[in-house]
Amino acid sequence: MKFLGNLIWFIFGGFINFITWGFIGLLWCMTIIGIPVGIQCFKIARLSAWPMGREVYHSNSGGSFIMNILWLIFGGIEIAAMHLFSGLILCVTIIGIPFGLQQFKLVKLALFPFGAEIHNERQQVVMRTEVPYSN
């Protein structure tokens, strides 16, 4: 079911999101200072191509907080607004609700890409079932 959802997503909008994020990543990578931002854009591009069955987890570190503030100033708000608008449009129909929810997942990632980790379903199961080592 995830494959079918991802295929429909990719055909009807995921490809455009993928190309957009990839192009933004290439623009950021033109400068040495922008390479970390470009890498985040490529991570988001990969998620925007095939989002079904993946989750985003955010960590709280000082370096990622500063980079996220800079990201918000230099374009994160506009891109997040684009994903929010697309998600609202998709949620108008019952069939579009799962796709709208994927856009909302991209909104949070577009606002705060630094410190975010993307895990697929298999990694989520491993994370939930691992027992911490104790003496």
Keywords:
135 residues, mainly alpha, two-stranded antiparallel ribbon, 2 strands, globular, disordered C terminus
Short description:
This protein has 135 residues and is mainly alpha-helical. It has helices spanning 2-28, 35-49, 62-90, 97-111, 121-129; strands at residues 54-58, 116-120.
Structure, described:
With 135 residues, the chain is mainly α. Helix content is 70%, strand content 7%. The chain is built from 5 helices and 2 strands; from the N terminus they run ααβααβα. It has helices at 2-28, 35-49, 62-90, 97-111, 121-129; strands spanning 54-58, 116-120. A two-stranded antiparallel ribbon has the order 1-2. Mean pLDDT is 82; it is low at 128-135.
Calculate the terminal CA-CA distance, rounded to whole Å.
42 Å
Unreliable residue runs = 128-135
Number of strands: 2
Number of helices: 5
Can you give the mean pLDDT?
A: 82
Please identify the structural class as seen in this structure. Answer: mainly alpha
Helix content: over 70%
Strand order, largest beta sheet? 1-2
Along the chain, the helix and strand elements come as: HHEHHEH
Task: Tell me the strand percentage band.
Answer: 5-15%
Rg from Cα: 16 Å
Report the principal-axis shape.
globular
Report the biggest beta sheet as strand number plus sense, adding barrel if it closes.
2 strands, antiparallel
